[in-house]
C-alpha cells in the first residue's frame, strides 16, 4: 500500500496491512511529546486517545515498545497484571479491545474482539478476532500497551473452539506431548490470573467469578503439586486418569501425615 502523507508537524509514518505502523526510527525522530502524540492520534478515536493521554502506564509502555532495541518485557509486576485484568474483564461481556501492539517493524493500533487467554511458559497470550483484518490473531501480553476497553460488540462472533495458534504455542500446547486436565476456578477476576503458577493452559471466563482452565502439563505430579499449594476453590472435572492419580496422591499424603483414608474423604 502506498505511503500516506501525515500532517507536516509530525514525522512520516508508513501504512501497511496492520494499519498505521510507527517504527522505532520514526519515534526517535519525533522531538517532543506533541509530535509523538500526533503519530499516535492518527489511528485512534478521540475517546481512545483521551484514555491514552490519561494513563501514564500506556505512555510508558509505548515508549518501551518503540525503544531500539526494546528491552526485555517483564512478565509480572503492576503494569503487566493491570493489562491482564483489563483483557480478562473484556472477554466475558465481549467488549471491543483496542491497544498498541509491538512487532518486528514497530507498533500498530489493533481493534479486536477478545476471546480467551492462554499461558505458555510464563507468558500470557490473547486469542482474539481482529476486527480490521477479519481473522483470528494471537497477541502476547508483554508486547501490548495497556488496552482500552470499549463498548460491547453489537453482534459478536461465536467463540471458536480454537483460534489458529502460532507455531511456538501450537508445539507447547500439543496434546500429543502434554497431559491435559479440565479445572474450574471460582474466584474474582483479579485473582484468577494469578492462580496455578507455572502451569500452562487455556483460561475461559464462564461468568463473573467462575473460570474454566484447561491445564497442560508434562506429568500429573506437576499439577498435583500446584493444586496442593493454591488457596482457591477448584473443581477437577477430568479426565478420569487424573482424578484417579489425584485420589492416590491424597491417600498417600494422608498416610504420611498419620491420617486415615476416611479422614481424606
TrEMBL record:
Taking the record's annotation, the residue ranges forming a coiled coil are: none
Lineage, top-rank taxon, reads Bacteria
Residue ranges constituting the WYL domain according to the UniProt record = 84-145
What is the protein name for this chain? Answer: WYL domain-containing protein
Q: Which Pfam families match?
A: WYL
Name the PANTHER family for this protein.
PROTEIN PAFB, PTHR34580
Amino acid at each position: 500500500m502506498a505511503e500516506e502523507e501525515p500532517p507536516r508537524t509530525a514525522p512520516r509514518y508508513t501504512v501497511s496491512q496492520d494499519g498505521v505502523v510507527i517504527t522505532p526510527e520514526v519515534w526517535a525522530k519525533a522531538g517532543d511529546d506533541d509530535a509523538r502524540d500526533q503519530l499516535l492520534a492518527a489511528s485512534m478515536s478521540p475517546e481512545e486517545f483521551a484514555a491514552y493521554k490519561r494513563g501514564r502506564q500506556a505512555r510508558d509502555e509505548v515508549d518501551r515498545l518503540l525503544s531500539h532495541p526494546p528491552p526485555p518485557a517483564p512478565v509480572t509486576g503492576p503494569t503487566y497484571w493491570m493489562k491482564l485484568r483489563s483483557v480478562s474483564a473484556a472477554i466475558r461481556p465481549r467488549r471491543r479491545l483496542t491497544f498498541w501492539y509491538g512487532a518486528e517493524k514497530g507498533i500498530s493500533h489493533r481493534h479486536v474482539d477478545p476471546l480467551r487467554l492462554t499461558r505458555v511458559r510464563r507468558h500470557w497470550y490473547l486469542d482474539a478476532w481482529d476486527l480490521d483484518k477479519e481473522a483470528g490473531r494471537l497477541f502476547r501480553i508483554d508486547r501490548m500497551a495497556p488496552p482500552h476497553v470499549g463498548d460491547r460488540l453489537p453482534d459478536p462472533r461465536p467463540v471458536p473452539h480454537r483460534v489458529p495458534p502460532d507455531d511456538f504455542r501450537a508445539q507447547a500446547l500439543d496434546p500429543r506431548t502434554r497431559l491435559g486436565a479440565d479445572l474450574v476456578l471460582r474466584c474474582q477476576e483479579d485473582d484468577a490470573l494469578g492462580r496455578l503458577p507455572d502451569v500452562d493452559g487455556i483460561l475461559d471466563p464462564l461468568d463473573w467469578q467462575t473460570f474454566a482452565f484447561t491445564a497442560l502439563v508434562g506429568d500429573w505430579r506437576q499439577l498435583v503439586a500446584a493444586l496442593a499449594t493454591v488457596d482457591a476453590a477448584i473443581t477437577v472435572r477430568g479426565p478420569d486418569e487424573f482424578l484417579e492419580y489425584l485420589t492416590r496422591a491424597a491417600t498417600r499424603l494422608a498416610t504420611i501425615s498419620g491420617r486415615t483414608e476416611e479422614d481424606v474423604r
